[in-house]
Amino acid sequence: MPQYYNSRLILQGDSSSVGRRFSRKNLRPGQLSSPLSKPFLQLNDRFQPLVYQHGSSFYRLRTYKRAIYAEAGKQGWDLGRFVKTLYFFNGPPSPVKFFEFLMEKLSSPAPSEPVTAMDSPGIVLVSGATGGVGRRVVNILRSKGFPVRVLVRNKDKARNMLGPDVDMNCSVIFLSLGNALENLVTPEKGKGLDEMRNIKDIGIHKNYVHIRLETYLTMPEEISGLRKEVRWNLNHQVAKLTYSQVVGDITKESTLVPEYFKGVKNVINAVSVIVGPKEGDTPDRAKYSQIKGDSPEMVEYIGMKNLINAVKGSIGLRSGKLLFGFEGNSSKGLAWGALDDVVMGGVSESSFQIDPIGGENGGPTGMFKGVVSTANNGGFASIRTKNFPKAEDLSAYDGLELRLKGDGRRYKLIVRTSRDWDTVGYTSGFDTVKGQWQSLMFSKFEYDGKLNPTFVEGAFQLPVSSIRSYIKDPITPRFVHVSSAGVTRPDRPGLDLSKQPPAVRLNKELDFILTFKLKGEDLIRESEIPYTIVRPCALTEEPAGADLIFDQGDNITGKISREEIARICVAALESPYACDKTFEVKSVVPFSEPYTVDPENPPPEKDYNVYFKTLKDGITGKEILEQSPVPV
């Protein structure tokens, strides 16, 4: 979904047909123009948040109430309510605002058609991309056409390991503008390139990047005549995007700049603490049981916490993003104001209040209520939010969900992606079932303009308990993490350590490496991000292709190739069967036997869904620890 600035609920006499769950591929805007001129109704860019109390959500204003009467047979028009509506959305009258509006109208070009957003699969962020598993993940993603962004600490190391064609522009867009435009602007007219850095929108599809239009308002006057030509070219030409790189350290929160994660839809995390000799080693590798670099706590736990916080807003939560409503003891409020037919001479009237006991389980709920009348050629009542402080980024989600209690009437929902008042709005009508709580899902907005067969004048009441974004079913993993087998074993009672891998036996000597890996896993499981946690046994440089054993409960030992783990991680991204699962994996080949393949006749690629389908929710290996707690 795109970014939204405001929303509106309407009860109207000519509402459209029902809108339930649709495909998100074709958003159809409807132009919604105000009957009043823009200087009166233009929204403030400022947003004053409202703390909900047990009462109306309106600001308490002194209203000037005076009825204006027209010809016989018409009802009086409430000028005071009209002024109150203007004041709520615009604040006090300002000559400065009027002058700014007038200058904008005189200088702005004619409105253009809205640009349709590309249905992009989203960027896959690979952290730990220079490690043994990470660089293989990058190569597999690229071969499959995924747009990839790599998060690395050392850009020179990344360039050496991943290739010289890595884009090194790490400031905001991570795209080499010169390379993208080298064939689109002639050299003699290319002097404006330095002025064209303000790219507002980049659409990525597979491994191609499309640079969108409206950016070229910053082009210098001497080449502004090229604007049409350049726009046409950019609509029909694409620049090959291999992958982009951002430089950051997950152990340092300040280096994880929010711009790095724009457009990221999935994360594969292969970051791991480094085990090895700090300086030199002995022939029998006696010093190999040392931590090199940052501690396990910094990398596996604090680093994981920083990474989750950095990507959570971009990749989305399983339960969606609450825009309005109540959850337990917390709530998310919006500044709602009435926008009724009084703005065009009508007499309908509505409000939005908080009912402290009107919710599904006797808790609080929002209440859209009022009286709708067709007098004075009116016939609609609506509420609209003030503009959000900044647009709500819902790109990680597939639609909006309204939870409400119906009254048998038809309503419509409008969302907007611009701060302007008379701008494009995405509209969908919906029917309600009287007396029933229902969840309505909106992923495609279209409006057919048909008359509302259920319209009845008079009082109405619509409890709305929540408005939130959602991820459609089946949900696939958004965060795939490479952990390690053995993370629950150091404190497991009755375990024969002599039969366990070195990391289990030396957990304390290695600064509790497995303990902090488990803590990092727990952060993922508690984050509400759809996840997969892969726990490989001992990693090798052998090729992929051996038969595998997937297990849960953290019991198996063995070996598996890094190439195989990389393939499993990429396959998990598209499998609902891998979502919210934690599992261990090894090959059937014993440690004592090297595994090789014939390059001329490699084994066929596996269908990892066969393995994912055997996995169960909630099994981590911690169950044994919880049943038999170990004294601290």
Automatic annotation (TrEMBL):
SUPFAM superfamilies, per database record: Galactose-binding domain-like, NAD(P)-binding Rossmann-fold domains
Domain NADH:ubiquinone oxidoreductase intermediate-associated protein: 332-443
Domain NAD(P)-binding: 477-576
Domain of life: Eukaryota
Official protein name in the record: NAD(P)-binding Rossmann-fold superfamily protein
Organism listed in the record: Actinidia rufa
Lineage: Eukaryota, Viridiplantae, Streptophyta, Embryophyta, Tracheophyta
